[in-house]
Amino acid sequence: MTDPVVVALALALAGASSEEELAGLARAEAEADGTWRLRGAVALLRAAAGGEEASVSVPDPGTLFRVGRLVRRDEVLEALYEAELRGCPPDTAGLDELGAALATGVWAERGELDEALGAVSAKWRVERMPVVDRSVLRLGLWELRHRPELSAGVIISEAVRLAKAYSTERSGAFVNGILGRLAGEREPG
């Protein structure tokens, strides 16, 4: 039996009318230590779309794509974290096409990303940052540079959510400050 809270979240995600609303729902779950609920809700929507019996309606492909993006970042972060620890390119076998592109793009540009991060992070050398925070910052900065269809606010909100979910409460403020400074340098798409 599926948790009614997860079902309610899946319905809210499927009914969200904008990227900002989706990011707000995801951030609220992170702030309530509900990353597991978010992942469960997306899994429920994916199951419904895959023809499995689920307690939610089948979302349209556009909605499923937007909702999937919320956990896609979690999945990409996990791949980047593991790659950093292993010192080799991320394993993209479990990621969808967009997730694989994000992970390989971040990995390929990590030197340039680290240079930009180091330039705005007062008192923190990039190599001294916790691996999770560094990976979140790289992902956020890569998206700021290569995903012009997304607002800087959505990208930063998602990065803060990831930092709070997988690192510390203080990491969220740190990530917000660094990416906020870098978002000011974002070239219009």
Structural commentary:
This protein has 189 residues and is mainly α. The chain has one domain (4-183): Orthogonal Bundle (N-utilizing Substance Protein B Homolog, Chain A), CATH 1.10.940. The chain has helices at 4-15, 19-31, 35-49, 61-86, 97-108, 110-120, 131-146, 152-166, 169-183. Helix 2 (19-31) packs parallel to helix 8. The protein is globular and about 50 Å long. The mean pLDDT is 89.
Q: Give the second-level CATH assignment, the architecture.
A: Orthogonal Bundle
State the CATH class. Mainly Alpha
- The chain-level mean pLDDT equals 89
- Output the CATH homologous superfamily: NusB-like
Encode the helix/strand succession as letters. Answer: HHHHHHHHH
Give a short synopsis of this structure.
The radius of gyration is 16 Å and the shape is globular.
